[in-house]
Each structure stands twice: as structure tokens, then as C-alpha cells.
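tl;dr need the bound structure. longer version: we got a ligand (calcium ion) that a collaborator sent over and nobodys looked at where it sits. i said id run it. heres the input, straight from their email, havent touched it
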Amino acid sequence: MSRFLLISALHLAASVVSLGAAEPARPNIVLIYADDLGYGDISCQGATRVSTPNIDRLAKEGLRFTDGHSSSATCTPSRFSMLTGEYAFRQKGTGVLPGDAGLIIKPGRTTLPSILQKAGYKTGVVGKWHLGLGEGNVDWNQDVKPGPLEIGFDSSYIMAATGDRVPCVYVKDHKVVGLDPSDPIKVSYKTPFPGEPTGKANPEMLKMHPSHGHDMALINGISRIGYMTGGKSARWVDEDFADVITREAVSFIEQNKAQPFFLFFATHDIHVPRVPHPRFVGKTPMGPRGDAIAQLDWSVGEVLATLDRLKLAENTLVIFSSDNGPVVDDGYKDDAVTKLGDHKPAGPWRGGKYSRFEGATRVPFIVRWPTKVKPGTSDALVCQVDLSASLAALTGQTVAKGDAPDSLNVLPALLGESKEGRDHLVEHAASLSLRKGTWKLITPAQGPKVSKNTNTETGADPQAQLFDLAKDPGETTNVARSHPDVELEMKAMIQKVVSE
Ligand code: NG6
Ligand code: CA
């Protein structure tokens, strides 16, 4: 072989090798996002009064995180952070939204789905949205936009906000599903519509009564937040939520099996109103809240079975998590309190949804990818806000400086290649807290110690609270006095993150 040919051959070989090494992985990605599911609500994390075999299967075949977090103690800010890679406290108006709110993610902005779209993925969202639609004055009878399709999803099948908020209809891409144009929908969060029943005026029509709030539009025997009229043919039936959105999730996978896809499957379970399908009623001794967990587990099972059936499971990265911690009474008399027994929705953590304690954001967090991720558990500190940077890294995308500003590439931790996750994390509830290693600082906050309606420990205290979670995982003993240096350092760190 001539010298020239030899060198060319070596070059070729080298470039093939480097091409191979640089070739980004493109597994399918399924992000299953439960609503209000606590750390202790699944049987692989201690639950005994409900069994979650499918979620447990994910944990057994994947990596289960013991320090995995949602970005916030409530839904909208958690979803905002997860999809944008930005802490929600940086943008005003990212609190729990009414169902007629405008879209809070600016169209054109870099998002988790737009990153994956650029990487060649087909992207879809199915289920609960709760990030606003339109520009604040949406007409539900016309094209409902901007929405998911304008921020990086190729398809969407969603409920606009939550099951307990109007409008009680599904929106597919830009259209309300099943709408009869001769019966237009109107929505108001201020004034009732004459002639329409409400929970307050017509309690005799209710099959489930509110415990606090939720006494407005009465639809399917359940009263909601906000008023609506019209759209009778399009109205959802709560008992069918899981069936409808699971069917849509399965169909998205089937339709996109030939190329890499990203499915954001955001379940309604186990948010209120908890009205599982009759086939799940009585599956647990805990009433509708427990039965909704069983139903959620069924949905997970259907997705896993679809991946198996289509022979996609091996090369699909499944992430299972929840948007915030648990709440028992979130506004309906559904026996959740009376039938709780010794079930611990937040597992070993204190507090839950709305709280500043760990139970608010330390949620189930499981990653399964059979060809890449070794089964086991990980104590690495990871957060949903990190998915943008981490999945960008996985798929060979670069995220411009300033986009996804709070998202860290923790891919090695997510794949179990490293025990190290984040160095620190800002936890977001009504005010900010900080985790650094096993330390937790809750900044001073006014307000009641317990929210009366939901019976949640808020974590509010006029004094700073410092906990050493290694010794005191239940956040019972404030050690700020004996560790003033740690408190000072963490206070400064929060200020730095806030001002960045
Ligand atoms: C609260 C609702 C609660 C739930 C929550 C949002 C009342 C009294 N309570 O305001 O039921 O809907 O908002 O939950 O209206 S989340 O999971 O979407 O953040
Ligand atoms: Ca939630």
C-alpha cells in the first residue's frame, strides 16, 4: 500500500471512530409525570395499603432515586421549570394557574421538547397541561393557541388545567375535542352563568362534595373551580380520564415507533377530584385516593406493555416522577383522610404538597433504560429542572447560554454512571429553601404552621431553620444556632442563585 493510501486509510478509520464516538444516543424518551403522588405512595417506597406492581417493575429494572425532586411544591411552577430549565421563581405569574390563563412559556423559547425536536425526535404531550393556553382571552370555540404546539410539541392531547378546573374538556392540538359549534363554550373565573348549576346552589346534584373551595361549575356530579356553560358534547367524564389519556399515550407511541420519539405523559391521577373508573373502585382500603394510585399504576403498566409489544422497551428511556408531593384533603370529601390508616403519603419526609419541608418536592423519581442503565438505587441529588440540559447532552444538542439557565447536565447521575448529582438545589414553595449536600435551609417566612384546609405543615417560621438530613431526615431539629457558619454560607448561596 502506498504511503498516501495508508495515511488516507488511517484518516478514514480515525474519522469513522470519532464519528462513532460522537454519535449521540437517540433512545425514545417517555416521561411519565404523575400528579400529587408522594414519595411514600408507591409500594417500592414503603406503601403497603396500595400495591403498584408496574411502577415497582420500573424501579426493579431501573434506577430509583432517593433524592430526586420536582422543582416546586405545586404543579404549574414544577411543569414550567421542567419544560424550560429555569427556576420558576425567576418568572412572575408561574403560580398555580386558573383554567383560562394564557400560556406562560413564550413561544419560540428553547424548551425540553424543542431541544428534542431539534435532535430529530417526534414530540408529544398527553394529559394534564396547566401551563396556560392562548394569550389570556382564549376563545375555546376557535383555534386554541398558542399552546404546546408553539413551544416544541408536534402533537398534544391535553386538559387545559386540572380536573378540578373549568373548562372540563380535552384539547387536541388546537381544537376542543367533540365540540358542537351550535353549543359554544364560555368560561369565567368570576361570574356564574345564569341557569347553570353550581355546587353551592345545587348540592343535591353532587356525587362528591367539596371540603373547601370547588363549589362552582357542577359537571358530571362534581363541582369545580370556575364557571362554564355550553360545550355539552365535549365535556369529559372523570371516571374515564385514565382510559382516555392512556389510550392517547399508547396511540402516540404506536404512531411514532419508527423514529425516535419523546412522549410527555402527564397523568391526571392522583389529583383531585379523585374519581377512578369503577373497575378500580375498592381496589385499596384507602378509598378514592388509594384507588387512584392503583389506576395510575395501571396506566403505567399499559405504557410499559406497549413498549414491550412494539419491542421498543430496550432502547426507551423511561422517566417516572411526580409534579409535587402528596396532599390528602385537597378540597373534596373523598374519604382520603378517614381511610388513610397508617399509610404515609410522603414516606419518611416531612410535609407534602404546598410545604417547605422535603415532602413537597422529594418525589418518586425512577429512570429505566435497559441497554444503558444498571438497575439499583441512587442517592444523587437530581431535579426535574435538570432534564433539559441532561437530555440535550444525551442527544448531542447544545443549549445556548441563557437558555435553560438553571438546568444542569446530571446525565451521568441519571444513567447511574456517577453517584454525584447537583451540588445544591433551590426548593420552591411559597418561599425558597436550599439543599446543599445533606443540609437543608428554610428561609424565614411568616404565616401559619399548618394550612387549616389541607392540614399541611407549611414549614413557615419567622426564624431560619437548618436541618442536617443525614442525621435528621424528618426535619425535626433546627440546628441553625449551633451551625451559624453553615446557615450564613447557605443564605449567601441562595442570594447568589436568586441574583444570577
Ligand atoms: C388549589 C386547589 C387544589 C388544587 C391546587 C392545584 C382549592 C381550594 N384548592 O388552589 O384543589 O387544585 O390548587 O394543584 O381551590 S396542582 O397540583 O395543580 O398544583
Ligand atoms: Ca400537582
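gonna send this back to them w/ a short note. Confidence is low (pLDDT under 50) at residues 1-21.
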